[in-house]
Specification:
The structure is a homodimer. Chain A is of the alpha+beta class. Chain A has two domains: 105 residues, Alpha-Beta Plaits (2-Layer Sandwich), CATH 3.30.70.580; 134 residues, Pseudouridine synthase I, catalytic domain, C-terminal subdomain (Alpha-Beta Plaits), CATH 3.30.70. Helices cover 20% and strands 29% of the residues of chain A. In chain A, strands 1, 2, 3, 4, 5, 6, 7, 8, 9 and 10 form a ten-stranded mixed β-sheet that branches. In chain A, helix 1 packs across helix 2 and helix 3 packs across helix 4. Chain A is globular and about 60 Å long. At the A-B interface, helix 2 and strand 4 of A face helix 2 and strand 4 of B.
């Protein structure tokens, strides 16, 4: 068998998330069922870089799977795309992995998410399901100012889901950029890895700063509290997209 | 009665287009049925700046309608949005029109459309319905080079739908910019007004230049032929969005 890396794009609506679950269709199940057609009927085991929740989208999720030797990256990509129809999941690129120790999850050195808030009175018609619709005007500059306290290496217990299974609550945020374009506020977050709900919990708190319910300094105080109850509510999944995952060597180099 | 201008955003999928038709739900019908709630039951008559076709989207369609005196722009916007649910149409802004001669259609001095081609092997998962998926690699620079021949005032008979009812085939293209960002090719087209299918017919021909089926010079020859049969096929509606309509005075100035 040959190990492949797959770059996936998906619309998180209609999925229970990346991971297989008994209560609905997961992205993992769709990929593995399509993969079975390449593996003589037995579905391959896949591992993803980010276990996105229900309703969370991906432009650049990376997944590993093993397929019989001799298949080209193009065949793997096109065959999976054929068999995954009509689900809103697509393999954008495939790459052959020669390093046996490579893991889509553990070899990743950086992950980037984007969160979009639609900040206007009118509900979304074009972006429904892809934005958090916030009617009250938000001050994106205040949000950016507050966000600075979260950059770097910290104990993120306050922004971690109670169900989070990571051994350590310590993570290093490398990027947290907030900008407004018209009525869209885009938040870009980058780190080597994230805790469960970390991005959505950060956004839920920054929104309270943006609408001036919280002073700018409160974000630093919430972080220091190391208490989930100190932070704001979890922002909805709709606005969140896993944009990219980076590795020491690009698994898709030279692939279309 | 007071005349209002409405700025509309809509997802063209699921509509037979802007204009009322017997074979399905139109955007116009949804707006007028919602407007009836403000007019004591009788639906208002609406006129749109651009009569978008089935499957064509809008971020900034402008529509006129008359509502009883005394309603604020906020009430008109919020009430229409409430009653248009769950259709994927929303009033982004409303403005009061005091000039009795103002027409959403005839007072417009500029219209801008965007056409998006997704140019990659994998079918779209996130942008399905909002892009024209073209697998064969396109050379956007060739397309831009060819497009220059269309700028300015010309007889656009070659790029006009045979069903087009405009009296004159002469139009003035003020803008035709083509650029690539990753696997997306974005085409921006601006003019005071357009012929029926003009943008989609132009895109359908430029795509043939992009894939090198046609030489760059062929676009100028097609224009000179003044013959619909000389041009390429009509590009699908999915990739097309009416972005904005401009007037001598902004009807939404000062409105959110």
């Amino acid at each position: 068998m040959t190990r492949f890396a797959l770059k996936l794009e998906y619309d998180g609506r209609g999925f229970v998330g990346w991971q297989r679950q008994s209560n609905g269709v997961s992205v993992q199940q769709v990929v593995e069922q399509a993969g079975a057609h390449l593996c003589g009927g037995a579905p391959p085991v896949t591992v993803a870089a980010g276990r996105t929740d229900a309703g969370v989208h991906a432009e650049g999720q990376v997944v590993q799977a093993e397929f019989p030797d001799g298949l080209t990256t193009r065949t793997v990509r096109d065959a999976l795309n054929f068999h995954m129809r009509p689900h809103a999941v697509t393999v954008v690129a495939a790459g052959v992995i020669s390093d046996e120790s490579w893991s889509a999850r553990f070899s990743a050195v950086a992950r980037e998410y984007r969160y979009v808030i639609l900040n206007r009175a009118a509900r979304p018609a074009l972006d429904a399901g892809f934005v958090w619709h916030v009617r009250r005007p938000l001050d994106a500059e205040r949000m950016q100012l507050a966000a600075i306290a979260l950059l770097g290496r910290h104990d993120f217990t306050s922004f971690r889901a109670t169900a989070c299974q990571a051994r350590s609550p310590v993570r290093t945020l490398d990027r947290l950029d907030i900008g407004r374009r018209g009525d869209r506020i885009e938040i870009r977050v980058g780190a080597r890895s994230f805790l469960h709900h970390q991005v959505r919990n950060i956004v839920g708190s920054l929104k309270l700063v943006g609408e001036e319910k919280w002073p700018v300094e409160r974000i630093a105080a919430v972080l220091a509290a190391r208490d989930r109850a100190a932070a704001g509510p979890t922002a909805p999944p709709d606005g969140l997209t896993l944009m990219s995952v980076a590795y020491p060597l690009d698994p898709f180099a030279g692939q279309q």
